[in-house]
Amino acid sequence: MTSLPLSDSGKTWNALVLGRAGLDLYPQPDGGKTSDADGFSADMGGSGGNIAVAMSRAGSKVALLSAVSEDTVGHFVRQRLLQYQVSDAFLQVSLGSSRTSLALAEVRPTDCEVVIYRNDAADLQLQLTDAMKHAVTQSDNLIVTGTALISEPSRTTTLELMLHAKRHNCHVWLDLDYRPWNWPDLQTTRAIYSLAAEHAHVVVGNEEEFAVLTDELDLYIKQASLPSKGQTILLKRGGHGASLFTKDQRLDTGVYPVKSLKPYGAGDAFLGNLVHHYSGHEDWQAAMSCGSAAAAIVVSQRGCASAMPSPEQITLMQQSIAMTPAANWR
C-alpha cells in the first residue's frame, strides 16, 4: 500500500488495530437459516478488521496488526483491506497449518446463528517485530481486541505492544471482545484480561465481558477513575445504549432506533467511530453519538466491513433520527 500522510498530531497513523480479520459468509436470501441457504455472499469480517475499516471510512489513517494464512482466504482478506484503504504494511503471513478465520453468519434479527471456525487460527500466530514497535511510537492510538490475547505468540505480542504504546504517548484502547469458547476457563481469562487492562487507558465491553474481568464492577469503575489510575471505562448496554465512566463523571447515551436486519457488527462500528471522533475533538458526548449512529447503520444492513458507514451517512442518521434516550452527563 502507498504511504499515508501524517495525522494531525504529526504522527504517521491515527490508529493501529490489533486483532483478527477473516472471511464472512452470509446465507441467501436474507432472513433464512444457513441450513436452508440457496447461496452465500462474502465479506471481510473479524473484530479487528471491522474496527479498522470503520476508522478508515470515518477518515482515519489506520493499519491492521494481524496475521493471515498463505491461501486464497488470506488473499481475500488482504484484498479487502486494500479496498477499504486499511494499510496491510504490518499484516503477517502465517505458514504451516494455521488458517484465517471463517464465519457463517445468518442475516436475521432474532434466532441468528453465527458459527466461527478458528481451529489453529492464523491471527494468533502474530509475532512481535521492530517495525510494529516503531509504528506504535508513530500512532495516536492502539486498539486491541481481546481475542488477540487467547494464546501465544499473539498474547505476548499484544501485551508487549500495549506496554510499549503506553510508554510512548500512544492511547491504548482494550475491547474485551470475550468469546467463551476460545478460553479454557474463567480463571485464566480473568488473569490475562486483568493484565491487559492494566496497560489500557480505556477498557470497553458489555456487562457479560466485564463480569469476566471482575465480580465487582461498581468498585472496579470507582478505582479506575482515581487520579492515580486515570482510566476510562466504557460499558456497552446493547439496545439500551452505553455508559461512560471517566474522572468521577458518568455519561449515559441511548441508541438510534432502527429496524435491525442482524445483531452483529454494531460494536465494531461503534468503537471505530468513537475512537476516530474522540481523537479528533476529545468530546466524549459527540464521539459516542457518532459511534451509536454508526452502530445503528450497520445492524440495518447486510455485511460487516462493507456496511461501515461514511461520515455523510452518520450525519444523515443523526439529523433524521433522535437518539433515545438522549445523552446525559451525571
What does this structure look like?
With 330 residues, this protein is of the alpha/beta class. It has helices spanning 47-58, 72-83, 130-137, 154-167, 186-198, 207-213, 217-224, 266-281, 284-299, 311-320; strands at residues 13-18, 22-28, 39-45, 62-65, 67-69, 92-94, 102-105, 114-117, 139-145, 171-175, 202-206, 232-236, 242-246, 249-253, 328-329. It has a nine-stranded mixed sheet, with helices on both faces. It has a four-stranded mixed sheet with strand order 3-2-7-8. β13 (242-246) and β14 form a beta hairpin. α1 packs across α8, α8 (266-281) packs antiparallel against α9 (284-299) and α9 (284-299) packs across α10 (311-320). The model is unreliable at 1-5 (pLDDT under 50).
- Strand arrangement within the widest β-sheet reads 4-1-9-10-11-12-13-14-15
| Estimated share of beta-strand residues | 15-25%
Q: Tally of extended strands?
A: 15
What is the overall shape? Answer: globular
Poorly predicted runs are: 1-5
Order of helix and strand elements from N to C terminus? EEEHEEHEEEHEHEHEHHEEEHHHE
**What is the average of the pLDDT values?**
95
Structural class: alpha/beta
> What is the quaternary state of this protein?
single chain
Radius of gyration: 19 Å
Number of helices: 10
The biggest sheet amounts to: 9 strands, mixed
- Gap between N and C termini: 45 Å
